[in-house]
Amino acid sequence: DTGVSQNPRHKITKRGQNVTFRCDPISEHNRLYWYRQTLGQGPEFLTYFQNEAQLEKSRLLSDRFSAERPKGSFSTLEIQRTEQGDSAMYLCASSVLPHDRNIEAFFGQGTRLTVV
Amino acid sequence: ILNVEQSPQSLHVQEGDSTNFTCSFPSSNFYALHWYRWETAKSPEALFVMTLNGDEKKKGRISATLNTKEGYSYLYIKGSQPEDSATYLCAFMRNTDKLIFGTGTRLQVFP
Lengths: 116, 111
Prior knowledge:
Oligomer: heterodimer
Largest sheet of chain A: 7 strands, mixed
Structural class of chain B: mainly beta
Order of helices and strands of chain B: EEEEEEEEEEE
Largest interface: A-B, 27 and 27 residues
Helix content of chain A: under 10%
Number of strands of chain B: 11
Strand content of chain A: over 45%
Largest sheet of chain B: 6 strands, mixed
Shape of chain A: globular
Shape of chain B: globular
């Protein structure tokens, strides 16, 4: 296992188009997070899953954003009708269920989205 | 809304200088505090996961302390090197909930 994998690494799309990103977590990790990071800001929470269940979705996230983790393994994040304000780095992270407080999260390299 | 604040936002130091950053977080329902190092074009990488009040952890020239009662953590880098240049992120975890990140401290170390 080589870690958390995100595809594509870069995506340029025209405003109004739909885009989908994929995240493959570390295989035994049952928790998966999505974050968005824009210039000068820290990663902003979008949503997270415990196995296939979506536990929380940020209130800041519009209805154009949807995420799935159908079999509790990989996850997809879809943005419909993209806007220029959606341009950002989208980060995925995974971890085991943190019953042990010392559990860290492992991040992918992110997908950089540019909406033109 | 949980606020995690980091200061300073950016820092420029000379090679060999020691430096420190601050992370402030809510002191209620504390579960864990994470520090990550994020180099350009790479993934954020965990430095420390801190869970106990008074914890102090060290990895090489980097160390961190934790005060859960007052809600802050310090990250120290002794004798900064150019390869330490990165963004340093802290993230707060309440109960077994999601990680909430601060805005980060961008460190640039000049030779």
